Structures are given as structure tokens and as C-alpha cells.
Amino acid sequence: MQINKLSAQIVFAALITCAGCASAAADEYINDVRVGLYSVFYHTSADDISGPYVPPGANLNAENLETLYLGYVVHLPANFAVELAIGYPPLAKVKAQGPAELGSVPYDGEVISSARWISPTLLFEYNFLDASSTWRPYIGVGVNYTTFYDRDSTAAGNAASGGPTKLSLTASVGPAATAGVTYRISERWAAHASYSFSQVKTNLTADTDGIIRTTRISFGPQALVVSVGYSF
Q1: Would the CA dihedral through 191, 118, 45, 92 be positive or negative?
Q2: What is the number of alpha carbons within 13 Å of residue 49 lying toward its C-beta?
Q3: What integer pLDDT is reported at residue 21 of this predicted model?
């Protein structure tokens, strides 16, 4: 909880600072709000699950998903900007990968767990060309914070584990990068498309009546974002 509060304070302070120092050109509005679609593609790699009664090669893989994208951008002098991007917390599902069965219980390809995540990303961006240009590409780097909640083991996961199982996932802080383009529709409206990368790593602990199994997961998410923005 302290990590969550500290991260929120850092993001809030960064945006307030940027808003205070922003001095946009006469033909550019300082603020953008954006709404669109997040398409998230996971490139999961994980250590084999370790613990009692776990055979070699038992692993997992996250399913791709889509969710609502929300963004707030503050424009700074000299074509720079700061973006706070966040998605509506989606239900992420994890499939088993490895042996066809654990004992007599089906394993490979079964959805064994699910969780929701909150994953704000703060990006420092550079916009090419003049603010009045119809097409305007941009690039950015920053930091991503991800925390997980509503962590559940499914019926298939419980069967593979040998009983009802509680899951915990540690929060993640890692680098992020983006590249995109803005299409100016009118003075205040624009369409945006971007492709982003971030590093999200977590330690998974599964507790089945005191029997502990663990693994280290790197989700490697990449996201295609298509959105519409309003400048003010």
C-alpha cells in the first residue's frame, strides 16, 4: 500500500510540475486528453514453476487482451511533452504451458489463473515537426508501474495444484518506451496511434493449504494504442 501511495504521489507531482512549467507556442494548446483502445500483446517468459509435487517443465503464458485507454498529455516548450497513460483494469488470464497432464489432471492449455492489473505509465516525449502540422510523429521514454489485484486460481488451477489456492504477485517498476504519430483533424481534435513497450516483472507465489509454489514472470507487454484526443 505504501508503494501504491508513493507511486501516485510521484506521478501527481510530475504532472503538476510539468503543468506549471509548460509554455506552449501560440498555435498549440497545452493539454490533451485522449480516449481509445489498448491492444496488449504479451511476450511472456517465466521460470518453470518450482515447489512440492511439481514436475519439470510446468510453466505458464499470459493471454493477449484489449482494454480502454486513457491518456493525459501536457505539452512543454521545444516540442517536448509528458504523457500519463493508463488502461481500464482488464481481466488478464493465464494459461498453463508444459506437460499435457499433472498426474491425471489436464494442464497444458488450461486457464489456471486470472488477475486484474493497474498499470500507469509516465512518458517523456519528443514531437517532430511543428505543432500545426497535419501529421506529427513522436517518440518517448519513461517508467511503468504495475500492481495486481483480484488474483484468482481457477477451477482448473485448483485441480492442478491439489486444492484451493491463494495467489500473490509482487508489484513491478520498469522502463517503458513508445513511438507514435498524431493526425490533426481540426484545431482541437486529433487522432493518435502508437506502439509501446514496457518491462513488467513479478514474483508469483501460490499457496495451496501451506504448500508453496513459486515462479518469476516477465510479461514483456507490447501495446498498440489507437485513440482520439481533445486539446485545451
Answers
A1: negative
A2: 25
A3: 47
Give the whole-angstrom CA distance, residue 66 versus residue 43.
Answer: 15
**Are the C-beta atoms of residues 63 and 109 closer than 8 Å to each other?**
no
Rounded to two decimals, the pTM is: 0.84
135-162 as b/e, with b when 16 or more CB fall inside 10 Å? ebebebebbbbbbbeebebbebbbbbbe
* pLDDT averaged over 10-residue windows placed end to end, the chain, 232 residues: 48 50 56 97 96 95 97 96 96 96 93 97 97 95 97 96 96 98 96 97 97 97 97 96
* Fold of the CATH domain 2-231: Porin (2.40.160)
> What is the rounded distance in angstroms from the CA atom of residue 216 to the CA atom of residue 50?
10
User: So where are the chain's domains?
Assistant: 2-231
